[in-house]
Amino acid sequence: MNLLNLAEEMGLNPKKHSLSQGGEYHCPCPHCGGNDRFMFWLGKNRYWCRQCNSKGDAIQLCRDFHGMSFHEARSKVHQHPSLPKPRPKKQEPILSNSSSKTWQSKAKAFVDAAHGRLLIDQQAISCIEQRGLSLETAKAFRLGWNPIKSFSRRSEWGLEETNRKQWMCLPSGIVLPSIHENFIQKVKIRKSNWHEGDLYGKYYEIPGCSNAIPTFGDYNENIAVIVESELDAMLIMQEAKDLCACIALGGAQKRPDFTLTKWLKEKGLILFALDFDEAGKKGFIYWAKSYSTLKPWPTPEYKSPGDYYINGGNLKEWISAGIKAYLNKL
């Protein structure tokens, strides 16, 4: 697929402007809108927005606006637009994702079992309460508990197996499902044995998860708060769900897909509240260029909303102050 195919698939309705460089096309920018500020050249396989300076090739377009990995984007670009993908042979292992029935069934069973364990395990209940979450919030978001590290065959989840990759590890810790209309988008585990300096990070995402960034709260809310972790998003919904919706990026450098981009552009105000560290500050540069209603709103103290709350901060008052500070000025 070339840039024209991808732009048409995204509903950008590109218009041919000239024959330069194999064909020059103009259309609205998926980042910053407009009418014709987003330009691409088929012969050069390059795009550029003269407003927000987004630029790259067809693979970069898939990565920036669809949240794809490099390998997923490359596969998408090399797919012929007029030909369906060939069906894998039944006897071959199938590389799956969260849209497959096998993965959904296995993920649901894991989430249900983990949720049931959390409700009867005082250690697990204490763990989530230490992070400021109530048992009612844990029930609402179907949080779970995986008490011991275990291993599962990838094929049982509908995932491809190779000689070097046959098993997947399920570490012990808090199980964090992201569920939208009974569809499990992601399952992450906040590892119980994580420590500073751990090379593998505190969160583990089960292979096969969707690339979609999860949203929390009322989808029709006019105000959105962007945070880094799912636990922070759930905590904000616990304390201030009548004020805003929330999205959890899962990492400061994550980017929204086309659907989430469109949703965010409809918001009257977006409060940017990523962890107040170097990664969060760098991430703000991209978001500020992309969304005209986005404003910085870090917590008054501490690095994240969760840390602020468990040290006595009032999340509802903090968000209310952000709304009062910005909404009337936009």
Characterise this structure.
The protein is an alpha+beta fold and 330 residues long. The model is unreliable at 82-96 (pLDDT under 50). The strands form four sheets. The protein has a five-stranded antiparallel beta sheet, with helices on one face. It is globular, with a radius of gyration of 21 Å. The chain folds into three domains: 3-77, DNA Primase, Chain A; 101-205, DNA primase DNAg catalytic core, N-terminal domain; 215-329, Dna Topoisomerase Vi A Subunit, Chain: A, domain 2 (3-Layer(aba) Sandwich). It is built from eleven helices and 16 strands. α4 (101-120) packs across α5 (122-130). The longest helix is centred in the middle third of the chain and has 20 residues, at 101-120.
Strand order of the largest sheet: 1-2-3-4-5
Strand residues, percent: 15-25%
Parts with pLDDT < 50 across at least 5 consecutive residues:
82-96
Mean pLDDT: 86
> What general form does the structure show?
globular
Remind me, CATH topology of the largest domain? Dna Topoisomerase Vi A Subunit, Chain: A, domain 2
Given this structure, which CATH class of the largest domain is correct?
A: Alpha Beta
Proportion of helical residues: 25-40%
- Give the assembly state of these chains: single chain
Compose a concise summary of this entry.
The protein has eleven helices and 16 strands. The protein has 330 residues and is an alpha+beta fold.
